Structures are given as structure tokens and as C-alpha cells.
Amino acid sequence: MDVPADEPTAPTGPDPVPLTEPADGVPPVVADPTALRRAATALAGAKGPVAVDTERASGYRYSQRAYLVQLRRDGAGTVLVDPIALGGRLDPLVEALEGAEWVLHAASQDLPCLAELGLRPSALFDTELAGRLAGFERVALGTLVERLLGFRLEKGHGAADWSRRPLPADWLNYAALDVELLVELRDVLEAELERQGKLAWALEEFEAVRTAPLPRPRTDPWRRTSGIHRVRNPRQLAAVRALWETRDSVARERDIAPGRVLPDSALMEAASRNPSDEAELLALPVFRGRAQRRMVGTWMNALRRAGALPKDELPEPAAQHDGPPPPNRWSDKDPDAAARLAAARTALNLIAEAHTLPVENLLLPDLVRRTCWQPPADTSPGAVAAALREGGARPWQVELTADAVAKALSVSAG
């Protein structure tokens, strides 16, 4: 039976084959300049796309640096590079990869730490994004490899402390497997996107990811403290802010994940209880530990600074936004905008379903909200298309959605 062009295909057959180690074994880690030059020469002399991955230590370290870089290219095999041992100086690798297409899974997670090392792709293929555009509901690397290539990858060390040295052998095995089949997966996904008529769309998306600016620091990042939604008292919010900023400074100085310095729950507990002195602070559960007893003066000073702030320096109960308010408040603030958003969402969902796409990949939800909250003066399809392009939509997205969004902008609550 013919498969509809908009539905992803996958091979059927026996159960997936467990892939417990790389076909060529785990290579030694490149940790000195001589080995780096040798690896770079091999990669430069090989052909085809380069599979790239990194391992970080997000749950353990403050920084988001790469503690291991994995590469694989046909003709060169797999290369595992320790950027820490090399002092972050990977110039031979930068030269070797110039002009090559990089294959990454969820590239936006890895590109910032690679850029810190001077590594930036000339061309990109993102297998996770490709899977989304092809209509696969589950796009984790292991899931796609299992479904499309028939292998089950070894799991278990993705959230490990990759700053540890030396790296255990089983961790290195896991890291090497992450790039073992990445190019093969790329080829299958490219063929599937071509079959569905979506390859040109995917190439536009890959280029947008490749050229995206590095993430900017968040405004008021302390407002993301877990549990802060329960606090509305400005003085208590000031205490959360002071504790968060103190913890962040300590974590940055020690290169430790902030949650390992002091968990969010402890910040919230101290801010809500408002202890009057060190003894009362130490009576709180998390602060009874040895580490917190040593730092009790640091935390108490932060609380005292917050308590001494004049009223005009206290934080606002809610964060200030540069965009529209949360959609659940639109009906009260602007019923017509709420009607436009509802119409746009309905239309975009229908388009996404027709093309087997996640609606968030069809058009960014934030762009939809901003456009519906403050439409352009001219709501003709051509003018709306221009507004969407100015908001960052890619040509394929504009072509699919501009007419529908223009029509939604004409809807009113009346």
C-alpha cells in the first residue's frame, strides 16, 4: 500500500539490535597538542559530513562549557577530544572542519559551548529538528536510531559529571556511541524529508539554527526560582533576589551548579520565614548542614540587605514584560486580541496537521502572540507576510501561514 506523502515512514523488521560499543572500539582521548594535530589531519583528509556532539556537566558545574567533544567522519573514525586538558585551544580542529557539514542532534544545545572553543559550523544538519519536521512524535536520539536504523543505543551517562577526570571507560563508550550512527541517521532523515517535500524547509531551519545569535542573559533570572510563584510580598521577593544573587556569585566563583550550593527550596524557606539572626536561620532544615553552617554569615547578610532596602527599591510583584501579557489575561485586557489569537491558533493547528508538523515548528508561538496582540496597520496577506519575516519567520513558514494569519487578524470579539 502506498504511504501518504505527509506521513513518516520507518522500516519494519526484527527487534532492534543492542549497540553496546562502537564498531571500531573506543579511541583514546585526545588530550595533548600532538594528538590533536594528528586527529585534525585525519578529519581534514576524510570525506562527507562530520558527526559532532558534546558532553557538559550542567547539573554539577556553573559553566556550560564542553568537557568532551566527540566527532566522527567517514575515513577518520571517531575522535574524542578533551578541551579542558588542551586549555580550550583547538585551532587545528577549527581548520580541519572548515567547510564541512556538521551533523548534530538538538544542535542549539551544543552550538554555544562549541562556539566558546572557536568551533562554528559552515553548514548544519540537525537530526532532532529533522525528525520533528518529518512528523515523528518522539525525536530523542535513541528513539530515532531505534526506529529508523534498527539499533538500540547504550544509555545511562548523559547527566553524569563530565568534569570528572579521568573519565571512566564506560562513559567514553557511551560518548562514542552518540556519534556512531549520527551520519547514517542524517541520511535516512534527509531521504524522508525529500520524500515528503520538506527538505527545503528543513534546510532553511538548519541555517536559522546555525546563524542564530547566542542566547542573551535573562532579565531578572532570580524570578525563575522554583516556588517563587507563591510569593507576592515585595519584601520577601527582595529576600529571594538577594539570596539568589549571593548564591549565583558563590556558584560562579567556585564553578559549581547553583543548586549544589543551596537548593531553591532553601532560598524560598529563608525568604518566607525571615529569620532575625544566624541562630534562627540555622534552625531551618537545609541550613543545619555543615556546609551551610560555614556560610551562615553570607546568607544572613543577604537577608539583612534585603530587609534594609527602601520601599522604592523593592522588586515588583510580577516581572515586567516587553511583550504581550499572558494569553489567559487577554480576554479581560483586550477581547479583540483574544479573538484574533484564538482564530490564529485554530488555523495554524489545521495547517500543521495537514503537513504533519508540530505547530510550534510551523510558526513560533511567541511570534503568533505578538502579531495578534499588536497587528500591523495593514493586515493584507502581503503586509502580514512582511511582518512575519521581520519577526524571524523563515520563507517556507511565511508561505504556509501568512494568508491564515492575515485572516485571523480580521476577527473581532464582537
Automatic annotation (TrEMBL):
It comes from Lentzea tibetensis. InterPro entries: 3'-5'_exonuclease_dom, Exo_C, HRDC-like_sf, HRDC_dom, HRDC_dom_sf, RNase_D-like, RNaseH-like_sf, RNaseH_sf. SUPFAM superfamilies: HRDC-like, Ribonuclease H-like. Residues 233-313 form the HRDC domain. One of its GO terms (molecular function) is nucleic acid binding. CDD domains: RNaseD_exo. PROSITE patterns: HRDC. This is Ribonuclease D. SMART domains: 35EXOc (SM00474), HRDC (SM00341).
